[in-house]
Backbone:
């Protein structure tokens, strides 16, 4: 196998992508354009609903269901991006269609951040409890050793 066979066919420049929170709370990447920003934090079902409302001639759910959720969202996002850029009037229609979902997406992001912070606090509390338990065991062991030496001396 030559060196050329090992190199990727597409050279992806990840530095141009922005980190965002997905609907699940996981970190995701997007290209930072107005479509990606508007769809950030929406569930796959919400993106399907928007696409089916704006581009009614297509049944995206049957077309993309075989893909994983990230690929579904990416493909539908690309279709919406193409539709929005076809006509200036489509920008306003897209903004109106996304608006009802924006609050729910923001709430999900806040909830995911809170859950992450709570999990970090819980891990810190468990680590502190483990540290205290270890110190208590060491103190008990030292006390037992001290008592054992007193018995031998007596």
Residues:
């Amino acid at each position: 196998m030559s060196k050329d066979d090992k190199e990727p066919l597409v050279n992806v420049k990840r530095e141009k992508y922005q980190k965002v929170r997905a609907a699940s709370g996981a970190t995701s990447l997007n290209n930072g354009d107005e479509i990606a920003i508007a769809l950030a934090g929406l569930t796959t079902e919400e993106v399907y609903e928007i696409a089916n409302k704006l581009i009614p001639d297509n049944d995206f759910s049957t077309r993309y269901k075989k893909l994983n959720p990230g690929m579904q969202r990416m493909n539908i996002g690309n279709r919406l991006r193409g539709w929005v850029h076809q006509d200036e009037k489509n920008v306003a229609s897209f903004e109106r269609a996304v608006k009802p979902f924006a609050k729910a997406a923001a709430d999900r992001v806040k909830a995911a951040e809170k859950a992450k912070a709570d999990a970090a606090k819980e891990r810190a509390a468990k680590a502190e409890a483990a540290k205290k338990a270890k110190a208590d065991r060491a103190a008990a062991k030292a006390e037992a050793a001290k008592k054992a030496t007193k018995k031998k001396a007596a």
Observations:
- The chain has a mean pLDDT of 83.
